[in-house]
């Protein structure tokens, strides 16, 4: 075992009580937080386990064979997740993304997808139901995921060079198997190809590790209908040893690609969208939809907190208001303590109304972490 501190265990213990206000908060789809941001997007982590050991997320020296994962009984059941998701939808959620860890490791995940796919917004519309995966199990599961009602997937892929990819996932997993999963997802129809609804690839760019793969990735997915997104290496949690000098700014990524493949900036596809969109240009300098687009997510160098409309539900039922939060609100205690739907919905409403999180905007003014109270939740525990 490494001597590094594992803050995740502390974060599981130290949760905040989910308050049930004396005056019920009506779930009318118009909920907004202290900064006027609506609640439209819910990320649900279904497991804290993963079969990769990417050093920017679950480094092997911390998440080793002795790491104390949550026992199965601590996880929210599919029925509990669906019940809670329904209450979020009543408050305005229109999009649900399943995350992990690696969500496809959760046994019978298709059952949960089928339950969530049956939910409807107050105006009768189906949800935008998505899932983020490392792609390792996607080839065998793509068809069943689609049949269960999943709309699309986002696959994490940090390079095409097999040696680089094996080194980054740190379990010697071949890139060819992930590419096979991506093709299976496309063949199954997991992504409509419409703006904002395409199959997506997420590449975390870490300076000194895989920036030489940027152009190769761009050329590979250009014209395929798949949207490639480049994500700045983020200071999530405390186990990845994050340093600012390992961040390659998104502006540099765009400049690098633009020098080889002409790009034109596009409008956001939806309110609260985290990615800045760039379309491949034709000879006239205009966006050619057939060539597709890329996205850059710049949470380090260009904060987008003011438009953030996302809440995160951990695998054992804690509600987090920010990807960089240190504590979550314990909804499971209400769910398993006999609280009514009205009480749980009111608690969610009260928590969101008090939300003022904007870590990325304040990052440069904050002092370094000095103790457990300031440690942030781990990416592997809450998802992206």
Brief descriptors of the model:
384 residues; alpha/beta; 12 helices; 13 strands; 15% strand; disordered N terminus
Fraction of residues in helix:
25-40%
C-alpha geometry = globular
- How many strands appear in the DSSP assignment? 13
Q: Assign the structural class, choosing from mainly alpha, mainly beta, alpha/beta, alpha+beta, or little secondary structure.
A: alpha/beta
Based on CA atoms alone, the radius of gyration comes out at: 20 Å
Number of helices: 12
Strand content: 5-15%
Biggest β-sheet description: 13 strands, mixed
Separation, N- and C-terminal Cα atoms: 26 Å
**Spatial strand order of the main sheet:** 1-13-12-11-2-3-4-5-6-7-10-9-8
Mean of all residue-level pLDDT scores: 87
Question: Topology as H/E string?
Answer: HEEHEHEHEHHEHEHEEEEEEHHHH
- Which residues form runs of ≥5 with pLDDT under 50? 1-13, 368-373
Task: Give a structural overview.
This protein has helices spanning 7-13, 78-90, 109-117, 138-148, 162-169, 175-188, 214-221, 250-258, 332-335, 341-353, 359-362, 379-382, and strands at 16-17, 41-45, 95-99, 128-133, 152-156, 200-205, 227-232, 263-265, 276-280, 293-297, 310-313, 318-320, 329-330. Helices cover 27% and strands 15% of the residues. With 384 residues, the protein is of the alpha/beta class. α2 (78-90) packs across α10 (341-353) and α3 packs parallel to α4 (138-148). Strands 1-13-12-11-2-3-4-5-6-7-10-9-8 form a 13-stranded mixed beta sheet.
